[in-house]
TrEMBL record:
Pfam families: MPAB_Lcp_cat. InterPro entries: MPAB/Lcp_cat_dom. Residues 17-247 form the ER-bound oxygenase mpaB/mpaB'/Rubber oxygenase catalytic domain. This is ER-bound oxygenase mpaB/mpaB'/Rubber oxygenase catalytic domain-containing protein.
């Protein structure tokens, strides 16, 4: 008989499941992209090797697909996602116009920056939005995310596995960060993105997106906002209240409706996960999000 570790990478009782199933992930994802853009070489790697400037929302959806597969997918799906990402990165190069040097996109320092900016954003936004995680659970989340880091080619022991280690990492890397033309353009794109073709039907409502983009910006660390200086400062309590309201509203959206924002392949993967877990005795009538409740696990308790 298969155990839960054979069915899904991160089981419902993991800290990762609680964070990644929360709808604050949309804010965390955009915040992560804004934060990542402050590393000149990492940003130029994206700029020179992708269509980010034409379709930043598409990059967010592709990131969501990878995160989904290394969280809710089967071990085989996660391994394949990792192989695909590593193969793409291995073939890409980025030229630094400041030095004239050419770097590999899969340089460990660049991969580490992208990973840390991403997972710290997910965690910090979810906690600030009202997801009740203790310090110990937050540390556990970062430890669990070392598995995702390994998928892109990092050595797990080189990746921050606690909040204290993550804070020390950002303190160490901050002298390297700055606002390049590409970074400034990235923030503008993320506040006013070009919608992918299949979502152009939503274009009339695009002005309503700006408050969301601004919310993502205001959740950045104080030092990052000072570097960008794009929007006037507002009280921290106002941002927290807006984030909590966003979380409350988004978490009330039925899972089938919410999942329409994902790429078709992502939706198919999530549906396959529901079916596997349902066959294993998990109560999936309220979707994957419902599995944050231990009463919906086989036997009504954690394995």
């Amino acid at each position: 008989m298969k155990g839960i570790e054979d069915l899904v990478v991160q089981p419902p009782h993991s800290a990762t499941w609680r964070v990644h199933i929360d709808r604050t992930m949309w804010v965390g994802g955009v915040r992560g992209l804004m934060l990542q853009a402050l590393h000149p070489l990492a940003m130029r790697g994206v700029w020179q090797n992708s269509s980010f400037q034409e379709d930043p929302f598409g990059r967010l959806r592709r990131t969501a697909d990878f995160v989904g597969r290394v969280t809710f997918g089967s071990p085989e799906e996660a391994a394949e996602a990792g192989r695909r990402v590593r193969a793409i990165h291995k073939a890409l190069r980025v030229k630094d116009p400041d030095t004239g040097r050419t770097h590999r996109v899969d340089d460990p320092e660049l991969l580490l920056w992208v990973h840390c900016a991403e997972v710290s954003s997910y965690l910090e936004v979810a906690r600030r939005g009202g997801l009740g995680l203790s310090e110990r659970q937050a540390d556990r989340y970062l430890t669990e995310q070392r598995a995702a880091a390994a998928c892109v080619g990092l050595h797990p022991e080189d990746v921050p596995g606690t909040c204290a280690e993550m804070e020390a990492y950002f303190k160490r890397v901050r002298p390297v960060l700055r606002v390049t033309e590409e970074a400034a353009a990235t923030v503008r794109f993320l506040m006013w993105p070009r919608l992918p073709e299949e979502l152009r039907v939503l274009s009339p409502g695009k002005p309503a997106y700006f408050p969301f983009g601004a919310l993502c910006y205001y959740t950045l660390p104080d030092w990052a906002r000072r570097m960008y200086g794009v929007l006037p400062e507002v009280p921290r309590a106002t941002v927290t209240a807006a984030l909590r309201a966003f979380r409350l509203a988004m978490n009330s959206v039925p899972e089938p409706v919410h999942d329409r924002a994902f790429m078709p392949a992502t939706r198919a993967m999530l549906q396959a996960t529901r079916e596997r877990l349902g066959a294993a005795g998990y109560d999936v009538r309220k979707g994957l999000k419902g599995l944050t409740d231990p009463r919906r696990w086989p036997g009504g308790a954690a394995a």
